[in-house]
């Protein structure tokens, strides 16, 4: 037993008869008896005790005179103890067995500032239970069994600043639940079974600054209810099961500065206007299911200084799309699936001083992603499969100045330096490692390729370099060729032309480039036309989807496409089927009309003309979808 409790016990004795102690251990009883005698002695001896006598302490509680604290924690109480001193400032009733709180349960504790009812079994709080606690600033009812909070429970708490009702089983917040808590600044409401927050639930919380709603069963953002919180500056929404953050989710929260959305495992979409109306300085959307940086949603947040998108399956940060966040200082995207950070990704972010890219799939981070290297102070690049070539030279050169937050980046490639941490490289080694080799095209023998119309041709372009170069192909009109279409660039860099056409003739330029430089090489192609169109190989139907000449769409050349076959097979079959059915029904309708006519008029018309115009809805229907009108045709049946 501590010195404090020995001092406290005598006061317990004065307010409770001996019989109440039955069942407690003998030691306690002995102590109490000793206490009685000592009190009597003190009673006689000291006048100062008179004041202390007016400050009773409930049985089984500890009362600390200096702090005016009554500690009844873990005393197996099933009711709020009686005999609480009216001048107590702090009352701890946590970890007991309280089940209900009646009306005016704490009357007479007008000076109480802090009341802790956490970890009980409270399932019912009567209206006005806290009436009279006019000085109360902090109320904790965390971890109980509340299912509902009747309106009026929190009346008579004009000074309350912090309220914790988390870890209960509350299902709904009714209108006006918190109405009288005009000075409440912090509300912890998380880890309940909340399925609904009524539109006026937060009415009256005019000074609320911080709201935490973790792990609820809400299926949508309570936008209207939140819009009442005009002074909210911080909000945390954790573990909600929402997959789309819709437009205007947080409108009218003009003072909100810090928004944390985390562990919404199904959140994969932010509407482009979802954050509109907010003026945040700190935004966290981590541990969600976003696959791209929500550029459109965040671009209005021009005062943003902190952005955390960690633990989302984001694969790339694209160039020049974050430039509006001109005050950004910290960007965290740790634990993502990043493979590339494009050049210019952080262009315009002149104040960026922390970049946290730990635990991604990045092979490199080029200097060109940053606006200015000089402002970067902290860089996390560890746990990435880094290729230690010239692209990372800027980092390794600053390895002593940059703060790696205790996690040195290390090389994964090339093999000779695999596993080495950046700080292990000596200055002399840097010129040997961290090098690049300019891209160089191999087999540079002049290529002069001839092919007949309708044929297939492959133009090879092989290159080496370190890092391995990327290969692009261009036409003589400088149009970039794509990996799809009739003329396409294969993944190994070879250019493939199918169903060669005369106008495909010309030169094609292959360019191999890597960070160290580029190399290019030109191939000329001659497609010879056939004298007799009869000899032309008509491709099989299944291949006809490619007959739209992609090279012609890309180069926008005015060349006439001499396509022998204006429609593809599908279009023809549909048109014919439709034509036949319409024809049949038209004929039947006509005959019915003629029959009715003959019945009523007694006259028979001997000729009938049927005009029929079938139209397919899909135009040409060809795979290229270039919008030519070749699918339409007119048929006239007489
Ligand atoms: C209150 O009492 C409990 C249980 O005896 C003890 O663990 C806790 O530290 C006490 N709190 C204070 C502030 O003395
Ligand atoms: C809330 O969600 C949890 C976990 O998904 C579930 O166990 C609980 O039954 C839900 N409660 C209600 C009221 O839907
Ligand atoms: C996350 O998104 C992927 C597809 O983008 C989907 O397959 C997966 O189920 C989603 N995860 C969750 C928890 O919704
Ligand atoms: C947005 O927030 C910043 C910093 O908190 C503040 O300086 C600025 O005035 C705010 N802008 C508006 C429109 O509220
Ligand atoms: C980087 O992100 C990781 C994972 O979120 C975190 O643990 C670490 O503290 C962050 N580093 C810095 C410097 O903020
Ligand atoms: C590239 O791949 C295609 C088919 O996938 C093949 O025909 C061609 O020969 C390859 N090119 C080279 C240079 O190996
Ligand atoms: C190739 O390098 C030259 C300068 O060496 C540069 O002007 C040109 O833009 C580069 N081309 C490509 C496709 O990278
Ligand atoms: C045209 O077709 C005939 C047989 O069908 C063939 O003998 C002849 O070589 C073809 N001509 C050309 C130019 O391909
Ligand atoms: C293609 O040519 C048409 C006019 O012939 C022009 O209006 C259009 O802008 C051109 N498209 C491109 C991509 O050059």
TrEMBL record:
A UniProt-annotated Pfam family? I-set
- Which Gene Ontology terms of cellular component type are present? plasma membrane
User: What range(s) does the Ig-like domain occupy?
Assistant: 439-528
Classification via Gene3D superfamilies: Immunoglobulins, Ribonuclease Inhibitor
| The keyword Disulfide bond belongs to this UniProt entry's keyword annotation | yes
InterPro entries, per the entry: Ig-like_dom (IPR007110), Ig-like_dom_sf (IPR036179), Ig-like_fold (IPR013783), Ig_I-set (IPR013098), Ig_sub (IPR003599), Ig_sub2 (IPR003598), Leu-rich_rpt (IPR001611), Leu-rich_rpt_typical-subtyp (IPR003591)
> What membrane topology was assigned to this protein in its record?
Single-pass type I membrane protein
Membrane-spanning segments? 572-597
Q: Do the record's keywords include Disulfide bond?
A: yes
**Record localization:** Membrane
Q: What is its main location?
A: membrane
Q: Which UniProt keywords apply?
A: Disulfide bond, Glycoprotein, Immunoglobulin domain, Leucine-rich repeat, Membrane, Repeat, Signal, Transmembrane, Transmembrane helix
What is the official name of this protein in its record?
A: Ig-like domain-containing protein
């Amino acid at each position: 037993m501590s010195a404090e409790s020995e001092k406290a016990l005598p006061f317990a004795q004065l307010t409770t008869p001996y019989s109440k102690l039955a069942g407690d251990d003998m030691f306690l009883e002995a102590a109490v008896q000793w206490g009685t005698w000592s009190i009597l002695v003190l009673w006689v001896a000291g006048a100062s005790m008179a004041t202390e006598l007016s400050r009773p302490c409930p049985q089984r509680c500890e009362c600390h005179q200096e702090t005016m604290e009554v500690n009844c924690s873990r005393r197996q109480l099933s009711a709020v103890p009686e005999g609480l001193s009216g001048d107590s400032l702090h009352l701890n009733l946590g970890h007991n067995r309280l089940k209900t709180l009646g009306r005016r349960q704490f009357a007479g504790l007008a000076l109480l500032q802090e009341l802790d009812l956490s970890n009980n079994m409270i399932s019912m709080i009567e209206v006005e239970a806290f009436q009279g606690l006019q000085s109360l600033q902090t109320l904790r009812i965390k971890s109980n069994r509340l299912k509902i909070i009747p309106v009026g429970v929190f009346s008579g708490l004009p000074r309350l600043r912090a309220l914790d009702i988390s870890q209960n089983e509350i299902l709904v917040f009714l209108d006006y639940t918190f109405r009288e808590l005009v000075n409440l600044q912090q509300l912890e409401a998380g880890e309940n079974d909340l399925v609904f927050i009524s539109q006026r639930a937060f009415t009256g919380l005019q000074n609320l600054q911080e709201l935490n709603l973790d792990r609820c069963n809400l299926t949508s953002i309570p936008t209207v209810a939140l819009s009442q919180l005009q002074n909210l500056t911080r909000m945390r929404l954790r573990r909600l099961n929402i997959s789309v953050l819709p437009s205007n989710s947080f409108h009218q929260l003009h003072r909100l500065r810090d928004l944390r959305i985390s562990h919404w495992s199904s959140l994969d979409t932010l509407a482009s206007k979802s954050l509109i109306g907010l003026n945040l300085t700190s935004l966290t959307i981590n541990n969600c299911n976003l696959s791209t940086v929500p550029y459109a949603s965040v671009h209005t947040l021009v005062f943003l200084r902190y952005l955390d998108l960690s633990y989302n399956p984001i694969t790339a940060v694209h160039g020049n799309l974050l430039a509006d966040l001109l005050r950004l200082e910290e960007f965290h995207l740790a634990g993502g699936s990043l493979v590339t950070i494009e050049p210019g990704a952080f262009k315009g972010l002149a104040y960026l001083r922390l970049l946290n890219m730990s635990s991604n799939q990045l092979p490199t981070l080029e200097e060109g992603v940053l606006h200015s290297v000089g402002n970067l102070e902290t860089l996390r690049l560890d746990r990435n499969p880094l290729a230690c070539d010239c692209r990372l030279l800027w980092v390794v050169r600053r390895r002593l100045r940059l703060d790696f937050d205790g996690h040195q980046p290390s090389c994964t490639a090339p093999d000779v330096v695999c596993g080495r941490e950046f700080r292990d490289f000596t200055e002399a080694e840097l010129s040997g490692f961290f090098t690049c080799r300019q891209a160089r095209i191999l087999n540079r023998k002049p290529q002069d390729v001839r092919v007949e119309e309708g044929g297939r041709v492959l133009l090879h372009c092989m290159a080496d370099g370190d890092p391995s170069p990327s290969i692009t192909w261009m036409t003589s009109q400088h149009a970039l060729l794509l990996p799809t279409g009739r003329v396409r660039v294969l993944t190994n860099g070879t250019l493939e032309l199918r169903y060669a056409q005369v106008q495909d003739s010309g030169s094609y330029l292959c360019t191999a480039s890597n960070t160290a430089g580029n190399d290019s090489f030109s191939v000329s192609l001659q497609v010879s036309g056939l004298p007799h169109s009869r000899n032309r190989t008509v491709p099989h139907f299944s291949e006809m989807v490619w007959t739209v000449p992609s090279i012609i769409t890309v180069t926008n050349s005015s060349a006439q496409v001499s396509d022998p076959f204006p429609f593809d097979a599908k279009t023809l079959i549909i048109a014919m089927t439709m034509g036949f059915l319409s024809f049949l029904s038209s004929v039947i309708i006509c005959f019915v009309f003629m029959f009715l006519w003959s019945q009523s008029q007694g006259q028979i018309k001997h000729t009938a003309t049927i005009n029929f115009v079938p139209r397919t809805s899909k135009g040409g229907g060809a795979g290229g979808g270039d919008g030519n009108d070749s699918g339409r045709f007119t048929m006239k049946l007489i």
